[in-house]
Each structure stands twice: as structure tokens, then as C-alpha cells.
Amino acid sequence: MKTASRFWTNYPEVLTYYSLAKTRKLDQSVDLSEIDISQLKTRPIISSCGGPADRISWLLVKLLSPLLKFVGSHIVNSNDFIEAIQQCQVPNSACYVSYDAVSLYTNINNDAAIKSLLELLSNHSREVSLCGFSASDVETLLEAALECNVFRFNNNFYAQKRGLAMGMRIAPLLAIIYLDHIEKASLTKGIILYKRFIDDVFVIGSSYTELTTTLANLNSQDVNIKFTVEEPSRDGFLPFLNTKVRICNGTTDIRWYRKESSKNIILHSRSAHPTYMKVNVVRNLIKTSERIAAGVSETDETIQRILSDNGYSSGE
């Protein structure tokens, strides 16, 4: 009873709705203070921290996260992506694009997502410990957590009728597993590599036809889940996470990538923060670039420019 009591809250926080402006695709020269607000897209966030189902959601994440190792397309960071693409045997005729699931969280069918998770759990029940909970218990807890999609905005209360709430702990795991369910019914035999970080996908196919067929299959599985496609630029590079990739005659070239909207702002050298924090920021920036594209002069120049713009000299 004492352990169980940790997972309910007698005085929960009220879930609050926030709008996070999508600025990452804006041109770097755009002055944010002069943007027409009506033209600015936002990402809906419902903060569930301390909410009525927050502790249950935390428990579900702990129990169910091991399922992610059975999602073949899932990657957790750019390291996973680089390792996967370096191990891939790419034929000379290969084509590559990236897909993006549009507004994924708010378009997910919650019942279908729970069903997909339970199917995956059933397939790997011997490999995942539920610490005494049954699959039926997990289903009940998931349904209870998702029923708490009630939030406050301008002192009025609303219920989210469809989709997962961004800001709920269990939402990413459900989204990843639901897309895995869609992908299993969509990928063609000509897909050589298919790796996904939440809703961003990098895919290599034996031909362009395989890529277009797979995209059509993905877009036909759920009326609310739609994928867009991005093709390589004129120089052959295609951005994905913090990398950009070019494949030519079976050879893969991976570079470090910074979005055009990036302002190259890091912790300034004159900041009052402790020295060790500034050292770590610089070290991590350099390590990230070296891990992705060591020895590339273009990357080295970018690093030097970022450091210089933030007050760091070459001698520091």
C-alpha cells in the first residue's frame, strides 16, 4: 500500500496549455519582433508535470521503455543514426529522402496506439519485466493516464478530444510504437535503410520508385497521420538531426549540420556562469562536431565562427 500510494496525487497541479512558436524553419535574417503573429505556426504543449496522471505516466515509462529496443527503426540520437548508416551497404543506384510525420502527437488515435503497444508487449512478454503488473493492468493505466488530457487556458478548462498531449511523459513512447505499427505495414522490400527519431525519418531505397511507394503506403494507413518528404539539395546533401548526408555512387558523406535558423548562440565567455560550465559548453560543441565530421575544414571554420561570435578566442 505504501508503494502504491506513491503513484497517486491528492493535490495535483492543474494542467496548463502553452503555445511554443515554431521558429526553426524561419530564415536566419528574419526579425522575430516583426513577424505577423497570424502567420506564425505554434506547437501545442500541455504541461503535465505534477498533474493527476503524472506519476502513473512516469511508472508506465519505466515499465514499457524496454519495448523500444524492438522497434527496428527507432534511434535515440545522431550517434545511432551515424552508426546505422555507416554499417549500411548502399548500392550505386540508391536514392535517399527524409520523411516527416505532420503534427504527429495531436493526430494519433489513442486507442490504436494503446492496441499497438499491447501487441508489441504480447510479442515480447518474456523479454520485458512488468514487475508484477499484467498486460490488462498496463492497458487500464494507459487509458487512465490518457483520460487526463484536461487543461486550463485563459482560466477556462478544455479536454483534448484527439491525440496525445505533448508534455505527457508517456506520449513519446506511444507515438514511437504507433508509428512502428504503421511502418510494418508500409515498407517495401526495396527499402535499404529506414531510421526514425520520433517523427523524423531518414530512408534509403534501391530506387526512387521504392521511396514514393513507401510514402504512399505510410499515408494510407491512418487518415490523420500524414508524412511529407524532403529531397536532397542541389549539392546532394540532405539534413537529418544535426547531420547532413550525401550519398554518391554508394559512398556516404556525413557532415555536421546547423539549421539556417540557428543564431549560433551559446553561453557567452563574459557570462557570470562558473568557468567549468563554459568549458563544458565549448568542449561539447567541439566533441559533437568531431564525432560527426572530424577533419572537415568547413566544420572547423563553423566552430571557430561560433566561438568567436560568443567571445571565445582561439587561445582559450
From TrEMBL:
Transmembrane segments: none annotated. PROSITE patterns: RT_POL (PS50878). It comes from the Eukaryota. Residues 1-281 form the Reverse transcriptase domain. Pfam families: HTH_animal, RVT_1. InterPro entries: HTH_animal (IPR058912), RT_dom (IPR000477). This is Reverse transcriptase domain-containing protein. The lineage of its organism: Eukaryota, Metazoa, Ecdysozoa, Nematoda, Chromadorea. The gene is Acey_s0040.g195.
